[in-house]
Write a structure and sequence with these properties.
This protein is an alpha+beta fold. Helices cover 34% and strands 24% of the residues. The protein is built from 14 helices and 21 strands. The strands form 5 sheets. Strands 1, 2, 7, 8, 9, 10 and 20 form a 7-stranded mixed sheet that branches. α2 packs parallel to α6, α2 packs parallel to α14 and α10 runs antiparallel to α13. The structure holds dihydroflavine-adenine dinucleotide. The site of dihydroflavine-adenine dinucleotide has 38 residues, from α2, α3 and α14.
Length: 409
Amino acid sequence: MHNSKNTKEKKVNKNQYDVIIIGAGASGLMCAIQAGKRGRKVLILEKANKVGKKILMSGGGKCNFTNLDVQPENYICHNPYFVISALSQYTQWDFIGMVADYQIEYEQRDLGKLFTLNGAKDILNMLLAECDKTKNVEILCHINVEQAEFQNHQFIIHTSQQTFSCQSLVIASGGLSIPTLGGSGVGYQIAKDFGHQVYPTRAGLVPFTFSDKFKNFTESLSGIAIDATLSNHDASFNEALLFTHRGLSGPSSLQLSNYWHLGEEIQIDFLPQIDLKELFLAKKQTQPKIVLRTILSEFLPKNMVLQLQQLLWQDIADKPLAEINNQKLAQLAEQLHGLAVKPSGTEGYRTAEVTLGGVDCDEVSSQDMQSLKQKGLYFIGEVLDVTGHLGGYNFQWAWSSGFVAGQSI
Ligand code: FDA
Protein backbone atom coordinates (compact mmCIF):
# COMPACT_ATOMS: atom_id res chain seq x y z
CA MET A 1 0.00 0.00 0.00
CA HIS A 2 2.72 2.36 1.10
CA ASN A 3 4.79 1.47 -1.93
CA SER A 4 2.05 2.04 -4.46
CA LYS A 5 1.38 5.54 -3.02
CA ASN A 6 5.07 6.32 -3.40
CA THR A 7 5.08 5.11 -6.97
CA LYS A 8 2.09 7.28 -7.76
CA GLU A 9 3.70 10.36 -6.21
CA LYS A 10 6.90 9.63 -8.05
CA LYS A 11 5.01 9.44 -11.33
CA VAL A 12 3.38 12.81 -10.77
CA ASN A 13 6.75 14.36 -9.85
CA LYS A 14 8.37 12.84 -12.90
CA ASN A 15 6.03 14.80 -15.10
CA GLN A 16 6.45 18.07 -13.24
CA TYR A 17 8.71 20.77 -14.69
CA ASP A 18 9.52 24.42 -14.11
CA VAL A 19 8.89 25.09 -17.78
CA ILE A 20 7.13 23.19 -20.53
CA ILE A 21 7.53 24.34 -24.10
CA ILE A 22 5.11 23.08 -26.73
CA GLY A 23 7.06 22.64 -29.98
CA ALA A 24 10.72 21.87 -30.64
CA GLY A 25 11.04 24.28 -33.55
CA ALA A 26 13.14 27.40 -33.93
CA SER A 27 11.56 29.51 -31.17
CA GLY A 28 11.03 26.62 -28.75
CA LEU A 29 14.67 25.50 -28.90
CA MET A 30 15.99 29.04 -28.43
CA CYS A 31 13.67 29.57 -25.46
CA ALA A 32 14.73 26.25 -23.90
CA ILE A 33 18.42 27.18 -24.18
CA GLN A 34 17.90 30.45 -22.31
CA ALA A 35 15.67 28.97 -19.61
CA GLY A 36 18.00 25.99 -19.21
CA LYS A 37 20.99 28.32 -18.79
CA ARG A 38 19.11 30.04 -15.97
CA GLY A 39 18.78 26.70 -14.18
CA ARG A 40 15.13 26.09 -14.98
CA LYS A 41 14.07 22.47 -15.48
CA VAL A 42 12.70 22.49 -19.02
CA LEU A 43 10.71 19.94 -20.99
CA ILE A 44 9.97 20.39 -24.69
CA LEU A 45 7.04 18.41 -26.05
CA GLU A 46 7.24 17.78 -29.80
CA LYS A 47 4.54 16.15 -31.88
CA ALA A 48 6.79 15.14 -34.79
CA ASN A 49 9.18 12.19 -34.82
CA LYS A 50 12.15 14.58 -34.74
CA VAL A 51 12.93 18.13 -33.72
CA GLY A 52 13.41 21.21 -35.91
CA LYS A 53 11.96 19.80 -39.11
CA LYS A 54 11.28 23.25 -40.55
CA ILE A 55 14.80 24.40 -39.79
CA LEU A 56 16.13 21.43 -41.79
CA MET A 57 13.83 22.19 -44.75
CA SER A 58 14.41 25.93 -44.69
CA GLY A 59 16.18 28.00 -47.30
CA GLY A 60 16.28 25.07 -49.73
CA GLY A 61 18.14 23.06 -47.06
CA LYS A 62 20.64 25.86 -46.40
CA CYS A 63 18.57 27.78 -43.78
CA ASN A 64 18.37 31.53 -44.30
CA PHE A 65 18.92 31.97 -40.57
CA THR A 66 18.79 35.75 -40.34
CA ASN A 67 19.33 38.98 -42.26
CA LEU A 68 22.00 41.66 -41.92
CA ASP A 69 19.35 44.37 -41.87
CA VAL A 70 16.44 43.61 -39.55
CA GLN A 71 13.88 46.36 -39.07
CA PRO A 72 10.40 46.38 -37.49
CA GLU A 73 9.13 47.30 -40.99
CA ASN A 74 10.11 43.82 -42.13
CA TYR A 75 7.24 42.39 -40.08
CA ILE A 76 3.48 42.34 -40.51
CA CYS A 77 1.55 42.59 -37.26
CA HIS A 78 -1.66 44.36 -36.28
CA ASN A 79 0.48 46.19 -33.70
CA PRO A 80 3.50 47.45 -35.69
CA TYR A 81 5.40 48.39 -32.51
CA PHE A 82 5.15 44.96 -30.91
CA VAL A 83 8.30 43.44 -32.42
CA ILE A 84 10.64 46.31 -31.49
CA SER A 85 11.53 45.25 -27.96
CA ALA A 86 12.34 41.59 -28.62
CA LEU A 87 14.26 42.36 -31.81
CA SER A 88 16.43 44.83 -29.92
CA GLN A 89 16.97 42.56 -26.89
CA TYR A 90 18.24 39.76 -29.13
CA THR A 91 19.47 41.00 -32.49
CA GLN A 92 20.69 39.37 -35.68
CA TRP A 93 24.23 40.11 -34.42
CA ASP A 94 23.61 38.01 -31.32
CA PHE A 95 22.55 35.05 -33.44
CA ILE A 96 25.41 35.59 -35.92
CA GLY A 97 27.73 35.60 -32.89
CA MET A 98 26.49 32.18 -31.82
CA VAL A 99 26.85 30.85 -35.38
CA ALA A 100 30.43 32.17 -35.41
CA ASP A 101 31.19 30.59 -32.01
CA TYR A 102 30.22 27.24 -33.50
CA GLN A 103 32.38 27.95 -36.55
CA ILE A 104 29.45 27.38 -38.84
CA GLU A 105 30.32 28.54 -42.33
CA TYR A 106 27.81 30.86 -43.96
CA GLU A 107 27.44 33.19 -46.91
CA GLN A 108 25.69 36.47 -47.60
CA ARG A 109 23.28 36.44 -50.52
CA ASP A 110 21.22 39.25 -52.05
CA LEU A 111 19.46 41.76 -49.78
CA GLY A 112 21.47 40.81 -46.69
CA LYS A 113 20.22 37.22 -46.45
CA LEU A 114 22.53 34.87 -44.54
CA PHE A 115 22.59 31.15 -45.42
CA THR A 116 24.68 28.29 -44.09
CA LEU A 117 27.19 26.91 -46.55
CA ASN A 118 27.06 23.30 -45.39
CA GLY A 119 23.40 22.84 -44.62
CA ALA A 120 20.63 23.70 -42.19
CA LYS A 121 21.62 20.79 -39.96
CA ASP A 122 24.51 22.96 -38.71
CA ILE A 123 21.98 25.40 -37.18
CA LEU A 124 19.86 22.64 -35.68
CA ASN A 125 22.91 20.85 -34.26
CA MET A 126 24.10 24.12 -32.73
CA LEU A 127 20.75 24.67 -31.00
CA LEU A 128 20.67 21.09 -29.73
CA ALA A 129 24.27 21.35 -28.48
CA GLU A 130 23.33 24.51 -26.58
CA CYS A 131 20.33 22.72 -25.05
CA ASP A 132 22.60 19.82 -24.01
CA LYS A 133 25.15 22.17 -22.49
CA THR A 134 22.61 23.49 -20.00
CA LYS A 135 21.90 19.93 -18.74
CA ASN A 136 18.43 21.18 -17.89
CA VAL A 137 16.57 20.60 -21.14
CA GLU A 138 14.71 17.41 -21.92
CA ILE A 139 13.00 16.85 -25.27
CA LEU A 140 10.23 14.32 -25.89
CA CYS A 141 9.19 13.62 -29.48
CA HIS A 142 6.04 11.89 -30.69
CA ILE A 143 4.01 13.73 -28.03
CA ASN A 144 0.97 15.47 -29.42
CA VAL A 145 -0.21 18.20 -27.05
CA GLU A 146 -3.99 18.38 -27.12
CA GLN A 147 -4.96 20.86 -24.45
CA ALA A 148 -3.68 22.93 -21.52
CA GLU A 149 -5.37 24.31 -18.43
CA PHE A 150 -4.42 26.16 -15.26
CA GLN A 151 -5.31 24.44 -11.99
CA ASN A 152 -4.07 24.83 -8.42
CA HIS A 153 -1.32 27.33 -9.34
CA GLN A 154 0.10 25.20 -12.15
CA PHE A 155 -0.44 24.41 -15.80
CA ILE A 156 -1.66 20.93 -16.69
CA ILE A 157 -0.79 19.81 -20.20
CA HIS A 158 -2.83 17.02 -21.72
CA THR A 159 -1.18 15.04 -24.48
CA SER A 160 -2.02 12.00 -26.57
CA GLN A 161 -0.14 9.86 -24.03
CA GLN A 162 0.27 11.39 -20.60
CA THR A 163 -0.31 14.50 -18.54
CA PHE A 164 2.43 16.94 -17.53
CA SER A 165 2.49 19.92 -15.22
CA CYS A 166 4.62 23.05 -14.96
CA GLN A 167 4.88 26.57 -13.54
CA SER A 168 5.48 28.30 -16.87
CA LEU A 169 3.99 27.20 -20.15
CA VAL A 170 5.40 28.37 -23.48
CA ILE A 171 3.42 27.98 -26.69
CA ALA A 172 5.96 27.58 -29.50
CA SER A 173 3.83 25.40 -31.76
CA GLY A 174 4.21 27.57 -34.87
CA GLY A 175 1.58 28.07 -37.55
CA LEU A 176 -0.42 25.97 -39.96
CA SER A 177 1.94 25.91 -42.92
CA ILE A 178 3.12 22.58 -44.32
CA PRO A 179 1.15 20.23 -42.05
CA THR A 180 3.53 17.36 -42.89
CA LEU A 181 6.28 19.32 -41.09
CA GLY A 182 4.24 19.50 -37.87
CA GLY A 183 2.04 22.55 -38.41
CA SER A 184 -0.98 22.41 -36.11
CA GLY A 185 -3.58 24.74 -34.69
CA VAL A 186 -3.00 23.72 -31.08
CA GLY A 187 -1.39 27.04 -30.12
CA TYR A 188 -4.37 29.03 -31.37
CA GLN A 189 -6.75 26.73 -29.50
CA ILE A 190 -4.84 27.04 -26.23
CA ALA A 191 -4.72 30.83 -26.67
CA LYS A 192 -8.50 30.93 -27.14
CA ASP A 193 -9.04 28.64 -24.14
CA PHE A 194 -7.15 31.19 -22.02
CA GLY A 195 -9.33 34.03 -23.33
CA HIS A 196 -6.97 35.37 -26.01
CA GLN A 197 -8.14 36.84 -29.27
CA VAL A 198 -6.68 35.13 -32.33
CA TYR A 199 -6.62 36.95 -35.67
CA PRO A 200 -7.86 34.82 -38.58
CA THR A 201 -5.02 32.87 -40.16
CA ARG A 202 -4.07 32.50 -43.81
CA ALA A 203 -1.16 31.15 -45.82
CA GLY A 204 1.76 33.56 -46.33
CA LEU A 205 4.97 33.55 -48.38
CA VAL A 206 3.16 31.34 -50.85
CA PRO A 207 2.93 31.15 -54.68
CA PHE A 208 -0.07 32.64 -56.53
CA THR A 209 -2.31 30.45 -58.67
CA PHE A 210 -4.44 31.49 -61.67
CA SER A 211 -7.42 29.98 -63.43
CA ASP A 212 -8.06 32.58 -66.17
CA LYS A 213 -6.19 33.07 -69.47
CA PHE A 214 -3.12 34.28 -67.56
CA LYS A 215 -2.67 30.68 -66.44
CA ASN A 216 -1.81 29.72 -70.05
CA PHE A 217 0.70 32.56 -70.02
CA THR A 218 2.49 31.38 -66.87
CA GLU A 219 2.23 27.73 -67.90
CA SER A 220 3.93 28.33 -71.23
CA LEU A 221 6.74 30.19 -69.46
CA SER A 222 7.07 27.63 -66.67
CA GLY A 223 10.58 27.63 -65.21
CA ILE A 224 11.53 31.10 -66.48
CA ALA A 225 12.51 33.75 -63.92
CA ILE A 226 12.98 37.48 -64.45
CA ASP A 227 13.79 40.39 -62.21
CA ALA A 228 10.41 42.10 -61.87
CA THR A 229 8.35 44.22 -59.53
CA LEU A 230 5.11 42.86 -58.16
CA SER A 231 2.79 45.25 -56.37
CA ASN A 232 -0.66 46.00 -55.10
CA HIS A 233 -2.08 49.00 -53.21
CA ASP A 234 -0.28 47.98 -49.99
CA ALA A 235 3.18 46.83 -51.02
CA SER A 236 5.71 46.46 -53.80
CA PHE A 237 8.62 44.03 -54.16
CA ASN A 238 11.38 44.02 -56.73
CA GLU A 239 12.96 40.57 -56.65
CA ALA A 240 13.03 37.48 -58.84
CA LEU A 241 9.66 36.48 -60.31
CA LEU A 242 9.29 32.85 -61.31
CA PHE A 243 6.65 31.61 -63.76
CA THR A 244 5.26 28.15 -62.97
CA HIS A 245 2.73 25.76 -64.44
CA ARG A 246 0.30 26.89 -61.73
CA GLY A 247 1.02 30.62 -61.65
CA LEU A 248 3.62 32.93 -60.12
CA SER A 249 6.30 32.07 -57.59
CA GLY A 250 9.78 33.32 -56.69
CA PRO A 251 10.65 35.88 -54.01
CA SER A 252 8.58 38.80 -55.33
CA SER A 253 5.42 36.65 -55.47
CA LEU A 254 6.00 35.10 -52.06
CA GLN A 255 6.60 38.54 -50.55
CA LEU A 256 3.48 40.08 -52.07
CA SER A 257 1.30 37.13 -51.02
CA ASN A 258 1.64 38.42 -47.44
CA TYR A 259 -0.19 41.59 -48.49
CA TRP A 260 -2.75 40.03 -50.83
CA HIS A 261 -6.39 39.10 -50.18
CA LEU A 262 -8.63 36.89 -52.28
CA GLY A 263 -10.32 38.75 -55.12
CA GLU A 264 -7.66 41.47 -55.40
CA GLU A 265 -5.61 42.30 -58.49
CA ILE A 266 -1.84 42.54 -58.52
CA GLN A 267 0.40 44.40 -60.97
CA ILE A 268 3.51 43.06 -62.71
CA ASP A 269 6.20 45.46 -63.87
CA PHE A 270 8.17 43.34 -66.35
CA LEU A 271 10.99 45.87 -66.74
CA PRO A 272 11.18 48.09 -63.64
CA GLN A 273 14.69 49.27 -64.46
CA ILE A 274 13.76 50.79 -67.84
CA ASP A 275 11.47 53.67 -68.83
CA LEU A 276 9.71 51.89 -71.69
CA LYS A 277 7.77 54.88 -72.97
CA GLU A 278 10.99 56.83 -73.34
CA LEU A 279 12.68 53.84 -74.98
CA PHE A 280 9.88 53.24 -77.50
CA LEU A 281 9.73 56.91 -78.48
CA ALA A 282 13.52 57.12 -78.82
CA LYS A 283 13.63 53.93 -80.95
CA LYS A 284 10.86 55.30 -83.15
CA GLN A 285 13.25 58.12 -84.06
CA THR A 286 16.45 56.11 -84.39
CA GLN A 287 15.11 52.78 -85.74
CA PRO A 288 11.66 53.47 -87.24
CA LYS A 289 11.48 50.04 -88.92
CA ILE A 290 12.01 48.00 -85.79
CA VAL A 291 9.11 45.99 -84.31
CA LEU A 292 8.23 45.96 -80.63
CA ARG A 293 9.24 42.35 -80.01
CA THR A 294 12.76 43.01 -81.27
CA ILE A 295 13.21 45.88 -78.82
CA LEU A 296 11.84 43.90 -75.87
CA SER A 297 13.82 40.75 -76.71
CA GLU A 298 16.94 42.68 -75.74
CA PHE A 299 15.71 42.73 -72.14
CA LEU A 300 13.34 39.77 -71.70
CA PRO A 301 13.45 36.09 -72.70
CA LYS A 302 12.23 35.70 -76.28
CA ASN A 303 9.52 33.27 -75.25
CA MET A 304 8.12 35.76 -72.79
CA VAL A 305 8.11 38.56 -75.37
CA LEU A 306 6.10 36.34 -77.74
CA GLN A 307 3.59 35.57 -75.00
CA LEU A 308 3.32 39.25 -74.09
CA GLN A 309 2.85 40.10 -77.73
CA GLN A 310 -0.03 37.64 -77.99
CA LEU A 311 -1.61 39.14 -74.90
CA LEU A 312 -1.07 42.85 -75.57
CA TRP A 313 -0.28 43.84 -79.19
CA GLN A 314 -1.09 40.87 -81.42
CA ASP A 315 -3.00 43.16 -83.84
CA ILE A 316 0.09 45.30 -84.49
CA ALA A 317 2.71 42.59 -83.99
CA ASP A 318 4.44 43.13 -87.33
CA LYS A 319 3.98 46.87 -87.62
CA PRO A 320 7.18 48.93 -87.57
CA LEU A 321 7.38 51.41 -84.74
CA ALA A 322 7.03 54.34 -87.16
CA GLU A 323 3.47 53.19 -87.89
CA ILE A 324 2.33 52.91 -84.27
CA ASN A 325 1.07 56.14 -82.80
CA ASN A 326 2.68 57.56 -79.65
CA GLN A 327 -0.45 57.13 -77.60
CA LYS A 328 -0.51 53.38 -78.33
CA LEU A 329 3.20 53.10 -77.49
CA ALA A 330 2.64 54.92 -74.20
CA GLN A 331 -0.28 52.62 -73.40
CA LEU A 332 1.78 49.50 -74.10
CA ALA A 333 4.63 50.84 -71.99
CA GLU A 334 2.19 51.41 -69.17
CA GLN A 335 0.82 47.87 -69.47
CA LEU A 336 4.28 46.34 -69.42
CA HIS A 337 5.10 48.37 -66.32
CA GLY A 338 1.89 47.35 -64.56
CA LEU A 339 0.07 44.40 -66.10
CA ALA A 340 -2.96 43.83 -63.87
CA VAL A 341 -3.67 40.16 -63.20
CA LYS A 342 -6.04 38.54 -60.73
CA PRO A 343 -4.84 35.42 -58.90
CA SER A 344 -7.55 32.85 -58.29
CA GLY A 345 -5.83 31.98 -55.03
CA THR A 346 -2.57 30.77 -53.58
CA GLU A 347 -1.09 27.30 -53.21
CA GLY A 348 -2.24 27.47 -49.57
CA TYR A 349 -0.72 25.92 -46.46
CA ARG A 350 0.58 22.97 -48.48
CA THR A 351 3.53 25.05 -49.70
CA ALA A 352 3.29 28.26 -47.62
CA GLU A 353 6.40 29.17 -45.64
CA VAL A 354 4.44 30.99 -42.95
CA THR A 355 1.02 31.62 -41.45
CA LEU A 356 -0.35 35.15 -41.29
CA GLY A 357 -2.52 36.16 -38.35
CA GLY A 358 -2.42 34.43 -34.99
CA VAL A 359 -2.45 35.37 -31.31
CA ASP A 360 -3.27 39.07 -30.84
CA CYS A 361 -0.06 40.79 -29.72
CA ASP A 362 -1.95 43.48 -27.80
CA GLU A 363 -2.71 40.80 -25.20
CA VAL A 364 0.94 39.72 -24.85
CA SER A 365 3.84 41.63 -23.27
CA SER A 366 6.26 42.82 -25.95
CA GLN A 367 9.09 42.69 -23.36
CA ASP A 368 8.93 38.99 -22.57
CA MET A 369 6.01 37.47 -24.55
CA GLN A 370 4.03 36.72 -21.41
CA SER A 371 0.25 36.60 -21.70
CA LEU A 372 -1.46 39.62 -20.20
CA LYS A 373 -4.41 37.34 -19.42
CA GLN A 374 -2.71 34.42 -17.68
CA LYS A 375 0.47 34.81 -15.66
CA GLY A 376 3.09 32.19 -16.55
CA LEU A 377 1.73 31.60 -20.06
CA TYR A 378 3.96 32.67 -22.99
CA PHE A 379 3.59 32.77 -26.77
CA ILE A 380 6.63 32.85 -29.05
CA GLY A 381 7.46 32.54 -32.74
CA GLU A 382 4.96 32.15 -35.51
CA VAL A 383 1.90 31.36 -33.36
CA LEU A 384 1.81 35.09 -32.62
CA ASP A 385 0.34 37.56 -35.09
CA VAL A 386 3.84 38.35 -36.39
CA THR A 387 4.90 37.46 -39.94
CA GLY A 388 8.24 38.42 -41.40
CA HIS A 389 9.17 39.19 -44.96
CA LEU A 390 11.14 36.60 -46.89
CA GLY A 391 14.85 36.84 -46.14
CA GLY A 392 15.59 35.30 -42.72
CA TYR A 393 13.20 37.58 -40.85
CA ASN A 394 10.94 34.78 -39.66
CA PHE A 395 13.78 32.88 -38.04
CA GLN A 396 15.06 36.10 -36.47
CA TRP A 397 11.63 36.60 -34.93
CA ALA A 398 11.72 33.02 -33.61
CA TRP A 399 15.19 33.59 -32.08
CA SER A 400 14.34 37.00 -30.59
CA SER A 401 10.93 36.09 -29.16
CA GLY A 402 12.27 32.75 -27.87
CA PHE A 403 15.20 34.50 -26.24
CA VAL A 404 13.18 37.12 -24.35
CA ALA A 405 10.67 34.55 -23.09
CA GLY A 406 13.59 32.34 -22.00
CA GLN A 407 14.93 35.17 -19.83
CA SER A 408 11.64 35.53 -18.03
CA ILE A 409 10.12 32.07 -17.50
P1 FDA B 1 8.16 25.90 -35.93
O1 FDA B 1 7.18 25.55 -36.98
O2 FDA B 1 9.59 26.01 -36.26
O3 FDA B 1 8.03 24.87 -34.73
C1 FDA B 1 6.80 24.49 -34.18
C2 FDA B 1 6.94 23.10 -33.64
O4 FDA B 1 5.77 22.78 -32.87
C3 FDA B 1 7.02 22.06 -34.73
O5 FDA B 1 8.17 21.25 -34.53
C4 FDA B 1 5.74 21.25 -34.60
O6 FDA B 1 5.89 19.90 -34.94
C5 FDA B 1 5.42 21.44 -33.12
N1 FDA B 1 4.00 21.25 -32.80
C6 FDA B 1 2.93 21.74 -33.48
N2 FDA B 1 1.80 21.30 -32.90
C7 FDA B 1 2.16 20.54 -31.85
C8 FDA B 1 1.43 19.80 -30.89
N3 FDA B 1 0.08 19.73 -30.92
N4 FDA B 1 2.10 19.10 -29.93
C9 FDA B 1 3.46 19.13 -29.91
N5 FDA B 1 4.21 19.80 -30.81
C10 FDA B 1 3.56 20.50 -31.76
N6 FDA B 1 12.18 31.35 -42.30
C11 FDA B 1 13.35 32.02 -42.41
O7 FDA B 1 13.58 33.01 -41.70
N7 FDA B 1 14.31 31.61 -43.31
C12 FDA B 1 14.12 30.53 -44.12
O8 FDA B 1 15.02 30.13 -44.88
C13 FDA B 1 12.86 29.86 -44.06
N8 FDA B 1 12.59 28.82 -44.89
C14 FDA B 1 11.41 28.12 -44.75
C15 FDA B 1 11.15 27.04 -45.59
C16 FDA B 1 9.97 26.31 -45.44
C17 FDA B 1 9.70 25.16 -46.38
C18 FDA B 1 9.05 26.68 -44.43
C19 FDA B 1 7.79 25.89 -44.23
C20 FDA B 1 9.30 27.75 -43.61
C21 FDA B 1 10.47 28.50 -43.75
N9 FDA B 1 10.74 29.59 -42.95
C22 FDA B 1 11.92 30.27 -43.09
C23 FDA B 1 9.81 30.00 -41.87
C24 FDA B 1 10.32 29.43 -40.53
O9 FDA B 1 10.57 28.06 -40.69
C25 FDA B 1 9.27 29.64 -39.43
O10 FDA B 1 8.88 30.98 -39.39
C26 FDA B 1 9.85 29.24 -38.08
O11 FDA B 1 10.22 27.88 -38.10
C27 FDA B 1 8.82 29.48 -36.97
O12 FDA B 1 9.36 29.00 -35.77
P2 FDA B 1 8.38 28.46 -34.64
O13 FDA B 1 9.25 28.01 -33.53
O14 FDA B 1 7.34 29.47 -34.33
O15 FDA B 1 7.60 27.25 -35.30
